[in-house]
Amino acid sequence: MDNSGSDMLLWNTFREGNRDAFARIYNIYINDLLSYGYRITSNRQLIKDSIQDLFLHLWLHRENISETDSIKYYLFRSLRNRIIKNIEKQDTQPQTAESILENIIGDFSVEQVLMAKETESEQIIRLQKAIGKLSKRQQEVIQLRYHDDFSLEEIENLMKLNNQSVRNLLHRAISQLRITIEMAGWSFPFILSFLY
After folding, report:
1. Arch. (CATH architecture) of 1-100
2. Numbered ranges of CATH 1.10.10.10 in the chain
3. pLDDT for 140 beyond 70
4. What angle do CA 83, 150, 136 make, to 5 degrees?
5. Which terminus of the chain, N or C, has less C-beta within 10 A?
6. Is residue 193's pLDDT more than 70?
């Protein structure tokens, strides 16, 4: 569904200083931004701080911000850049088992999309664990492609990779997910057909 016209209208209304439009953008995209942030890092505080910084920056610089026909893409790209910048500022710390577990259990959005009609919580948890075994970049590319429905070209720009690198990353992620599911002997007919 093409909502580029409504996105442009909402974005331009916000750029003109309309607080309601700004609040609406925040409310529409906050959950998607949080979910996407978790695919880049498991540091929840850094994600929340980066989102807060992003929206503060947007409001303070609204008159100078460029137009867009996809608010979601604009926000994802901006958040990714901000998180990467904030990670570089911090001393890198190894992930604890607790933070890895939080990351796996803490977010259902990608898993729910991949599960489609499958609603049994046991299968959702199993799939969460399978996705949680992927690298952060693999989790990110899976989310961008299958949850957020971005094109390969948009993913290239978001992740700052060339087309072949995106394709390779996506292929490896899907292959690894498929192997994990098959090795565990889980029954995910929808998932297995999707992964081919």
Report:
1. Orthogonal Bundle (1.10)
2. 104-196
3. yes
4. 40
5. N
6. no
* Cβ within 8 Å of residue 81, ≥6 positions away: none
The 10 Å Cβ neighbour count of residue 95 is 14
Distances (CA, A) of 175 to 17, 52, 118, 141, 164: 47, 36, 21, 13, 16
What confidence category does residue 97 fall into, taking pLDDT thresholds of 50, 70 and 90? very low
Give the CATH class of 104-196. mainly alpha
In the block, residue with structure tokens 């503060």: 56
CA–CA dist 193, 50 (Å, integer): 37
The angle formed by the CA atoms of residues 127, 176 and 156, to the nearest 5 degrees, is: 100
- What's the chain look like in SS3? CCCHHHHHHHHHHHHCCCHHHHHHHHHHHHHHHHHHHHHHCCCHHHHHHHHHHHHHHHHHCHHHCCCCCCHHHHHHHHHHHHHHHHHHHCCCCCCCHHHHHHHHHCCCHHHHHHHCCCCCHHHHHHHHHHHHCCCHHHHHHHHHHHHCCCCHHHHHHHHCCCHHHHHHHHHHHHHHHHHHHHHHCCCCHHHHHHHC
